[in-house]
Amino acid sequence: MSEPTTMSIKGQVTIPRDVRGRLGLQAGDKIAWSLLSNGTVVVRPNTRPMADLVGMLTRPGQPGVTVDEASASGEPPLITLCALLETERALRSRYKIDRASMTAAVIVMLETPGIEFEQAPTVEVALYLFEQVPSANFADCLLLARATHPGRDRFMTFDACAAKLPRAELGQ
Hints:
Layout: H1 17-23, E1 31-35, E2 41-45, H2 67-71, E3 78-79, H3 81-94, H4 99-111, E4 116-117, H5 120-132, H6 138-148, E5 155-157, E6 168-170
Parallel strand pairs: 3-4, 5-6
Antiparallel strand pairs: 1-2
Helix pairs in contact: 4-5, 5-6
């Protein structure tokens, strides 16, 4: 854990060197801050452009749609938790996307103006768990985050791998 920092009168803090190094932050990089309902603050680098992901899940000849086009009806496009799980499975199994790229893709979607997520704070907790528990898969992290987000302390599962997550218990 890094040493505590002090906030200046202007509300500025210095990000500790080890944190900057781990996140790959450099001067001028943008940082996204999220406040979860339990008071936890999630800080993420906001450095990967959405253009890196455009068309990743379309088939050749299949027309894509931009966020602006999808929002033309006046209602922002909604990414449901089920759709997110399907996307994660496709990225992992069909496109062989690694964990870091998967995390980056979800973060870019979370931070894209005009896209709405079902339970965005739950997705952020799932991303945090996914990073903290390298043996866990994203689906298990999302299920645990969803189960514990409304203030529950425990999550029961019948999946032995998911039961290894913090606060998860294996049902018998």
